[in-house]
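Re: that backbone. Tokens:
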């Protein structure tokens, strides 16, 4: 019988809990909740991952509790003594290091990352500097420990080494470049040794570590004379963190597209078809039979700054945020944006149906709408039609710059 279900996102803490479960060869089912946090929250109201559900209603959150539980659950005294400590003092030192990394260090890193990348928290220089300072202090202490000892808490690789090792790789992949890491040479040395431990072997790829640390780029000043400067003058998505997580609100009481009146093509019927019927065999043929190109236009939508994207789940979250901010216009729109590629080499593209012949009145309710480019698609052109079908069915690789790229994720705007 399965020993339970571990709910994760495929990076950071979730990834770590999964690696421990695998190493211990536990019979635990792994569920990635990235795309369905709402269902996850029904059972884990804080919505924080990882979470664990064991037999008979036993439930855990908190990564430390989960990995400790897994290690004890294995029932192998030798493994438990090595990973969790073999006497009172060792046990306490390991727990202390785990706790400090998880709360002090990651507690500073998490808002730092969000502010720096403009993903979810407004940029605040003082706060970013404070968080960086906290992290430098902790990195400094850990580095000092590793100048004198081989491992962080005991004389062997403990769970604290493994946990910090995995976190270190994450920071090195998303923000901290060689310039930051080289300040802590003992940690860099230790990283190489510990990343070969069976729990982590092959999990993180140091060839993906950044050379240069990511720095925040202040938004460019907007042109004074126009309320809506041209796309080229607009700041990039990552430079507009202040508006990143604000919900979209229609600026005027009436949406401008309301003026176009009621259409003969029923967008609601289409959304129902799309949601309830098989996409290729039923929904798409219905769409092309009923679509009215005078009432609605079709757009290829591309994120302009694909080279700034890092982890695919973060790209997908970016799309989710964009769609949330489009909520003021969603009754005039339908579409899908997909994420193609892999971590540190991915992009966002898609196809969107919009009431009227212009994309702007629908999209401009989202403060970050100019981070995307919009190309009108001609529904009488077979190639365009094929692109739209592929984006909405999202079951085949997408061709980008002549290359086939796998679609890894996506979101529906409806
Ligand atoms: N204290 C919790 C924190 C878990 C946590 O913050 N997880 C992140 C992912 S690593 C998360 O779920 N973030 C989503 C959110 O903050 O809503 C633990 O250590 O397990």
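Recovered sequence:
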């Amino acid at each position: 019988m399965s020993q339970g279900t571990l709910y994760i996102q495929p990076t950071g803490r979730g990834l770590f809990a999964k690696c421990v479960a695998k190493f211990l060869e536990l019979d635990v089912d792994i569920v990635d909740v990235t795309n369905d946090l709402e269902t996850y929250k029904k059972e884990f109201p804080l919505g924080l991952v990882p979470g664990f559900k064991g037999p008979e209603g036993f439930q855990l959150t908190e990564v430390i509790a989960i990995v400790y539980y897994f290690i004890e659950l294995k029932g192998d005294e030798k493994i438990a003594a090595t990973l969790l400590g073999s006497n009172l003092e060792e046990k306490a030192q390991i727990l202390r290091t785990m706790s400090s990394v998880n709360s002090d260090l990651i507690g500073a890193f998490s808002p730092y990352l969000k502010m720096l990348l403009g993903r979810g928290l407004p940029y605040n220089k003082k706060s970013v500097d404070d968080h960086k300072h906290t992290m430098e202090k902790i990195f400094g202490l850990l580095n000092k420990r590793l100048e004198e000892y081989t491992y962080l808490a005991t004389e062997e690789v403990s769970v604290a080494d493994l946990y910090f090792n995995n976190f270190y790789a994450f920071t090195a992949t998303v923000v901290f470049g060689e310039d930051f890491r080289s300040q802590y040479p003992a940690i860099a040395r230790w990283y190489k040794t510990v990343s070969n431990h069976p729990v982590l072997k092959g999990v993180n790829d140091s060839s993906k570590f950044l050379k240069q640390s990511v720095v925040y780029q202040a938004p460019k000043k907007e042109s004074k004379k126009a309320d809506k400067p041209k796309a080229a003058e607009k700041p990039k998505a990552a430079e507009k963190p202040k508006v990143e997580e604000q919900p979209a609100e229609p600026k005027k009481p009436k949406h401008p597209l309301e003026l176009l009146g009621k259409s003969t093509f029923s967008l609601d019927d289409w959304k129902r078809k799309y949601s309830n019927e098989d996409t290729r065999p039923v929904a798409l043929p219905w769409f092309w039979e009923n679509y009215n190109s005078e009432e609605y236009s079709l757009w290829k939508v591309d994120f302009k700054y694909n080279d700034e994207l890092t982890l695919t789940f973060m790209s997908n979250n970016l799309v989710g945020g964009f769609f949330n901010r489009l909520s003021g216009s969603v009754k005039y729109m339908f579409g899908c944006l997909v994420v193609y590629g892999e971590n540190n080499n991915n992009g966002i593209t898609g196809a969107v149906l919009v009431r009227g012949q212009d994309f702007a009145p629908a999209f401009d309710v989202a403060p970050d709408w100019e981070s995307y480019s919009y190309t009108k698609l001609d529904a009488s052109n077979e190639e365009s039609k094929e692109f739209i079908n592929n984006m909405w069915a999202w079951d085949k690789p997408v061709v980008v710059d002549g290359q086939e790229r796998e679609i890894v994720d996506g979101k529906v705007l409806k």
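The first helix runs from residue 12 to 23. Residues 4-75 form a domain with the Glutaredoxin fold (CATH 3.40.30.10).
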